[in-house]
Here is the input.
Amino acid sequence: MNKSSRILIPIPLHDFDPTEVALSWRILRDAGHRIEFATVDGTRGHADPRMISGVGLDPWGWLPGLRKLRLIGLMLRANRDGRQAYAALEQDAEFLRPKRFRDVGVADYDALLLPGGHARGMRPYLEDLTLQALVAGFFDSGKPVAAVCHGVLLAARSVSPLTRRSVLYGRKTTALTWKLERSAWNVTRFLARFWDPGYYRTYGEDKGEPAGYWSVEQEVRRALASADDFVDVPPGTPHYLLKTSGMARDTPGDDRASWVVRDGNYLSARWPGDVHAFARQFAQLLAE
Here is the structure.
């Protein structure tokens, strides 16, 4: 039997992605690991409600009488596996009683997992200096760290006191690509939630800044030692179209659509469509 690890998952109070948190929790728990959570003030976090219900993701979603009529919203929300995992997570005692960021330390845990999400409620999480210091401590300790989507952005913003650089400097990583972020943004602002065009962009560009300058990919790239250290799916990779379309997700028995990058004890992935493979590979890393 593999040794059980104590894993910390810090989350924001609002708007995290339900699949990235709940599926990671379920897969790692089922692998025998103990999962604990932390938020800024010790109160439970809540996933982006639009990713659970799909309400508010249709062009008519701003009209009270039509708001709950879902069409595009059913396609854009988390899939059944993610929603079921989140429903189970909401019954978990550790999730309902998280620690506070300032009360947890690297020595208390064997590993760290950083999930993401795209709505504006993610900003306090991504910008929290106490949390960034904790992330830096995990990287400097050499303990395993996994990050997905905007969780990679949190890592990129975390500066090591030893090197005074981002903890991702000198590492290989992936993250939410600008292609995936832009595609989802275009769907929501032109075909779905048009009255809130910035919904899928956690951070947007100011006038005069190039398109995508504050995308996850571009900010992460600026933290790396080399632009080549950002690892997207290379053309010619088996199942390239599945991996890059933004339409296909991996499943419990099919990893073809996933893309996960490992550099030593650091594991990264792009979006909810990678999470089955992401969490399983993290469990394998912990077993080594």
The chain has a mean pLDDT of 97.
